[in-house]
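step=encode ok
step=design start
structure_in=
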């Protein structure tokens, strides 16, 4: 029996991401056994479908490919490396070659099955192939569901840093099958909690209360609030990107904690998970906000407490500051020589801190230095 024929499938939750900057609205579905939704999203014009998946999900990728082949599409499965190793120009070129050799035209469709690294790469391949083909995201990690697959930021890394090449190219739909979280290692599950906690601090403090009520339960898919945490975070993301797809202003709040996080990821040669780096980055941003006189002590301290309660890191090697500072200069929020950070002026009150005094950065760094 294919997943699309599962009689147990309950009605999924549907969150619509409104169209923005001339793009079409699309739905994020959260539930179980959602593969039956794929053909409607692929549409009737498509003849070929490419299923991109990481090595770790070879079985799932093949199952989806077979399901679509049985429905009459010409299908290819394209296996890419796990995690950040997939977000390179050479892997993108490998995918372009696979599309070219299969005769992939503008009406054909990419289906991305995997975590945020896979959906970032696949979305970028879809954005660049023939200058843009339709793609559908099937995120299989917490982080992919609540953040990476939603909002249309796609991209790859370069030797100089994280996500430096990419495109805004929203998917035609996002299918979050909760069953896929059962196979996710706890380390990866917890990494996704960092982006959920980010959504809590920048927009929806109820998220923080749900996690603080039982941090241990939040560390796995069986917790009492799993679905609510995912849904609340997706609603935050959907609402923010709806107003500013191309990040001309308000969308920058989703980058809370990311200025330092991306520098840590590069410094660690991408052996740290993104969420772990975002966790340290948010503590840094909270300290920066406090030192700049914008954020109260209690909210700043709450970052360290809630992040460490679920097992996320809140410190980083103290001897790396010059390298981190250098990398932060190429952050996408920078303007010329001016570094720009998202800070909080209270719970759910994000703001931009422009060109902070270097002494403030050093002082904030001292608070996270191990
Ligand atoms: N585009 C965006 O808006 C956006 C937002 C947030 C993060 N991101 C990006 O997302 C990436 C991080 O994504 P991630 O945390 O999902 O990690 P990931 O994609 O690197 O996946 C982590 C590991 O889990 C494996 N995996 C995935 N699903 C699995 C499953 N169900 N069971 C077992 N193993 C599974 C992967 O193959 C990989 O080895 C980073 O590159 C980050 O920059 C993008
Ligand atoms: O969607 C956004 O906008 C974000 O900033 C979400 C982040 O969680 C995500 O990591 C994003 O990929 C970072 O984007 P970048 O523009 O800083 O590379
Ligand atoms: Zn992120």
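sequence_out=
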């Amino acid at each position: 029996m294919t997943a699309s024929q599962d009689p147990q499938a309950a009605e999924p939750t549907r969150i619509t991401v409104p169209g923005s900057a001339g793009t079409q609205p699309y739905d994020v579905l959260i539930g179980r056994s959602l593969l039956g939704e794929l053909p409607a999203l692929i549409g009737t014009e498509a003849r070929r479908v490419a299923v991109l998946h990481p090595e770790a999900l070879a079985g799932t990728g093949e199952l989806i490919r077979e399901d679509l082949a049985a429905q009459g599409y010409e299908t290819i499965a394209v296996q890419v490396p796990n995690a950040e190793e997939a977000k390179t120009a050479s892997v993108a070129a490998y995918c372009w070659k696979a599309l070219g050799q299969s005769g992939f035209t503008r009406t054909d469709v990419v289906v991305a099955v995997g975590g945020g690294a896979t959906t970032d790469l696949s979305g970028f391949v879809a954005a660049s192939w023939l200058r843009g083909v339709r793609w559908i995201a099937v995120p299989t990690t917490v982080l992919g569901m609540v953040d990476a697959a939603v909002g249309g930021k796609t991209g790859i890394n370069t030797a100089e840093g994280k996500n430096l090449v990419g495109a805004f190219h929203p998917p035609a739909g996002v299918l979050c099958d909760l069953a896929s979280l059962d196979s996710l290692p706890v380390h990866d599950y917890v990494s996704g909690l960092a982006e959920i906690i980010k959504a809590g601090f920048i927009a929806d403090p109820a998220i923080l209360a749900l996690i603080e009520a039982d941090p241990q339960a939040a560390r796995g898919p069986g917790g009492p609030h799993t679905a609510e945490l995912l849904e609340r975070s997706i609603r935050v993301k959907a609402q923010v990107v709806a107003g500013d797809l191309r990040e001309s202003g308000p969308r920058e709040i989703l980058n809370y904690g990311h200025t330092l996080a991306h520098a840590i990821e590069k410094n660690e040669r991408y052996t740290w998970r993104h969420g772990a780096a975002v966790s340290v980055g948010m503590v840094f941003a909270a300290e920066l906000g406090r030192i700049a006189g914008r954020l109260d002590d209690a909210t700043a301290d709450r970052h360290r407490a809630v992040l460490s309660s679920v097992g996320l890191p809140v410190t980083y090697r103290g001897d790396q500051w010059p390298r981190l500072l250098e990398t932060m200069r190429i952050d996408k929020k920078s303007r010329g020589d001016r570094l720009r950070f998202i800070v909080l002026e209270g719970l759910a009150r994000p703001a931009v801190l422009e060109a902070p005094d270097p002494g403030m950065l050093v002082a904030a760094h001292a608070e996270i230095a191990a």
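step=design ok
step=annotate ok -> The first strand starts at residue 13 and ends at 17.
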